[in-house]
């Protein structure tokens, strides 16, 4: 065929798609954008709404306060993001945080430990041990994660009551301990710095290292993961240990912020952290736990709670709003997974 003939011959690749196909492609593109960025867009709308509804919300001091308030929650949430990516749940995080925060303040207040860094290190080790036991029950004994961590939650609550007698610890806590939450690094509050570091470390683990790919493979199919050579039991155990350490760190930071060891301090972490992670599952990796989504979910949760507080909504109304947000997030994630399948 001559060069002129080749130039005159129509090519399928150069034929423009019909208008109907172009419109369908455009709709699909916008639908994908809405699915991936709907939650951040809702966060922006929420911020604008509260800023217009209240003169105090947009104050820089209040916005800074929101970040401080959500920092312990964000640490717990990015922690449980790891096992949830593998299809496991850690229901013991609230009891873990409460017990470790109580133990840390108790050791310092009673004088059994005089070094604040050593007390923090012991708290981290306790959290890791709790995660290790959870991982052993789930990965090696074969307990479902919900049952194993629910049982662990009950055990930790019992230890909490036995240690404290149900009473808070106020007296004898050194100033160096409470200064952790009150201080800052280069004008940035310490709580925000630690939450950012924890998020960055777990992001690198989940989204830049083979461990993250292994966790997502487990979340998709244990059978396939086993066939490709992933070590299932050690990987699931590692995820639980990370979750346990994150909960322990959050519990100690919360105790530092409160300036006391409060037995019930960690009770709110479980539901709120699950809400945050499920909110995050509506973006980025739709239907899967992921760190960027968890960060946005924590911001959404913090803005919602703070805005409702400023507007004078009582605790019942806040619980109702949180429950509705959680149901909507779970429903969206489930439907997206079903459609993808």
TrEMBL record:
Q: Which domain of life is it from?
A: Bacteria
**Which controlled-vocabulary keywords does the entry list?**
Cell inner membrane, Cell membrane, Membrane, Transmembrane, Transmembrane helix, Transport
| Any single Pfam family the record assigns to this protein | BPD_transp_2
Enumerate the InterPro entries for this protein.
ABC_transp_permease
- The membrane-spanning stretches of this chain are 30-54, 66-86, 93-113, 119-143, 150-173, 185-206, 238-256, 268-286, 316-335
**What is the membrane topology here?**
Multi-pass membrane protein
Region of interest (Disordered), ranges: 1-22
Q: Where in the cell is it found?
A: Cell membrane
**Can you name this protein?**
Ribose ABC transporter permease
Please name the source species.
Answer: Nocardioides humi
């Amino acid at each position: 065929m001559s060069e002129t003939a080749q130039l005159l011959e129509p090519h399928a690749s150069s034929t423009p798609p019909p208008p109907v196909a172009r419109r369908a492609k455009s709709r699909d593109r916008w639908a994908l954008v809405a699915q991936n960025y709907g939650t951040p867009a809702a966060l922006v709308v929420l911020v604008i709404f509260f800023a217009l509804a209240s003169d105090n919300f947009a104050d820089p001091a209040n916005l800074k306060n929101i970040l401080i308030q959500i920092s312990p929650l964000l640490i717990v949430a990015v922690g449980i993001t790891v096992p949830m990516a593998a299809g496991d749940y850690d229901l013991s995080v609230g009891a873990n945080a409460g017990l470790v925060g109580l133990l840390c303040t108790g050791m310092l207040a009673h004088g059994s430990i005089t070094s604040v860094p050593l007390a923090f290190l012991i708290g981290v080790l306790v959290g890791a041990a709790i995660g290790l036991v959870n991982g052993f029950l789930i990965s090696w004994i074969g307990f479902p994660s919900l049952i194993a961590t629910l049982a662990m939650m009950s055990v930790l609550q019992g230890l909490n009551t036995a240690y404290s007698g149900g009473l808070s610890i106020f007296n004898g806590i050194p100033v160096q301990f409470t200064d952790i939450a009150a201080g800052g690094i280069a004008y940035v509050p310490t709580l925000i710095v630690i939450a950012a570091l924890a998020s960055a470390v777990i992001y690198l683990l989940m989204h830049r290292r083979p461990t993250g790919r292994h966790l997502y493979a487990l979340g998709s199919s244990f059978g396939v993961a086993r066939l490709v050579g992933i070590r299932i039991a050690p990987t699931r155990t590692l995820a639980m240990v990370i979750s346990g350490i994150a909960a322990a760190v959050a519990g100690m930071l919360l105790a530092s912020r409160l300036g006391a060891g409060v037995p019930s301090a960690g009770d709110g972490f479980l539901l709120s952290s699950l809400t945050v992670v499920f909110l995050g599952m509506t973006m980025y990796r739709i239907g899967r736990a992921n760190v960027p989504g968890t960060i946005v979910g924590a911001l959404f949760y913090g803005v919602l709670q703070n805005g409702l507080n400023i507007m004078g909504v009582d605790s019942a109304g806040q619980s109702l709003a949180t429950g509705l947000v959680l149901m909507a997030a779970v429903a969206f994630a489930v439907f997206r997974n079903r459609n993808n399948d």
